[in-house]
Amino acid sequence: MTIANLTRLIGGHPNTARMHLDQLADAGLVEVDTLPPEGRGRPARRYKVTSSGERALRGEPVADYETLVIAFAEHLVETGQVDRARDVGRTWAARLDLPVNPDPEERLTEVLEALDFSPQIVQRSPEATTFVLRSCPFVSAATEHPEVICGIHRGLLESLDWSGRRIALEPFASRSGCRVHLAKAG
Question: For the chain, percent helix, then strand, then coil, each to nearest 5?
Answer without folding.
Answer: 45, 20, 30
